[in-house]
Structures are given as structure tokens and as C-alpha cells.
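Retry 2 of 3 after timeout on previous attempt. Resubmitting C-alpha cells to design endpoint.
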């Protein structure tokens, strides 16, 4: 069940420790990890999770990823001009950005350094995914494109935040499909019981 819309996820961002004597405005963090994380909880209390396959980035378009604040406004860094690097390791997709180029980017660095801003979010589309009904887990098998990495002031709230809308819509569709399957199974069971009682009573 692939979502064709752009999706967003939040992860931790931190200031990179400067080398001795270095004036650094660099930040780093994982745009995504390979650990499962809960994205949505249904009205029935069932938790729906997501995880990224370690090979999900193999064919993804990472040619021009930009660093933003709250997914909008000016560009603070980008990998196309080497002010940001993206690398995949055993933990996930690591982002390192140099925020020294403008007064605004340096102000954002200071906000991250003081802990006023401590989350990052990525904007992406999915090329291929899978869903495990037993564990209620979506696995992103292939990213189509990574658009941006953003420092964010408020992390995604599954109930209200716009960043979580795509996840809510995705799992709403999953929940509806599972509900329809349960109703159909119950209907078939009821029909079988009715036949049993009808023939058994004759």
C-alpha cells in the first residue's frame, strides 16, 4: 500500500562537536533509522509501527536534498553544493550540515546548540513498501525521493500535526481493510454456522 504523497518523519538533531581551535557551525543527526517506531495508535488501542529497510536508500533519488526549517522558507544547506552530506551506516541515514553560510543559518545553529530546536524531520516519497498484518508494521522497502531535511520546532504529533497526516491516512486505509476482512470472516463464519444448524437439525 504505497503512499504517493510526500511524507514526513521526525528524528533527533544535535550540534557536532568542534575540533580544538575550530569555529564550527555544523550539526548532525539521523534523518531516519532502521529501528521500528510507532507512528499511529488506533481507537482500539492497536499500535501501528513503521521501519525502514536497510536497502531502502539504494535506488532513492538523493541528488538534491535541501536543509530547511519547518519544511519551508529559505534553504540553509544542500548536498548539491556540498554544505550538507548524507551517508548510510548501520544505524540509518546520517545527515551533517554546515550552517555557517548566512546570518540566518548561524542563528538556526545557535537555536540547535542551545536546545531550543532539537528535532529534524525528512520529506520523502516511497517507491515500495510492505505491511505485516500480524505485527501491524509497515516496512519502507524503497524510497523514491528524499526532498528535504528540516530542523523542526515541534515534533510530529500523531493526533494533530500536519507532518503526521500521511501516516494517519496510510494506517487509516490499513485499518479499514483489516476491519473489512474481519467482517467478511465473521460473515462467512455466520453462514457456516447457519448451514450447520440447518442441516444438523434435519
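Retry 2 succeeded. Sequence:
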Amino acid at each position: 500500500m504505497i503512499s504517493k504523497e510526500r511524507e514526513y518523519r521526525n528524528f533527533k538533531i544535535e550540534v557536532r562537536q568542534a575540533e580544538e581551535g575550530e569555529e564550527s557551525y555544523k550539526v548532525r543527526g539521523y534523518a531516519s533509522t532502521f529501528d521500528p517506531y510507532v507512528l499511529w495508535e488506533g481507537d482500539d488501542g492497536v499500535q501501528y509501527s513503521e521501519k525502514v529497510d536497510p536497502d531502502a536508500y539504494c535506488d532513492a533519488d538523493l541528488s538534491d536534498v535541501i536543509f530547511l526549517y519547518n519544511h519551508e522558507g529559505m534553504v540553509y544547506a544542500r548536498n548539491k553544493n556540498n554544505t550538507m552530506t548524507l551517508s548510510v551506516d548501520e544505524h540509518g541515514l546520517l545527515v551533517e550540515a554546515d550552517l555557517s553560510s548566512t546570518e540566518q543559518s548561524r542563528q538556526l545553529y545557535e537555536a540547535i546548540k542551545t536546545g531550543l530546536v532539537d528535532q529534524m524531520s525528512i520529506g520523502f516519497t516511497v517507491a515500495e513498501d510492505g505491511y505485516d498484518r500480524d505485527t501491524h508494521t509497515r516496512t519502507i522497502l524503497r524510497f523514491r525521493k528524499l526532498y528535504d531535511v528540516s530542523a523542526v520546532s515541534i515534533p510530529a504529533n500523531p493526533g494533530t500535526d500536519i507532518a503526521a497526516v500521511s501516516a494517519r491516512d496510510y494506517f487509516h486505509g490499513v485499518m479499514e481493510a483489516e476491519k473489512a476482512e474481519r467482517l467478511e470472516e465473521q460473515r462467512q463464519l455466520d453462514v457456516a454456522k447457519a448451514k450447520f444448524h440447518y442441516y444438523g437439525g434435519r
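Attempt log closed. Residues 157-166 have pLDDT under 50 and may be disordered.
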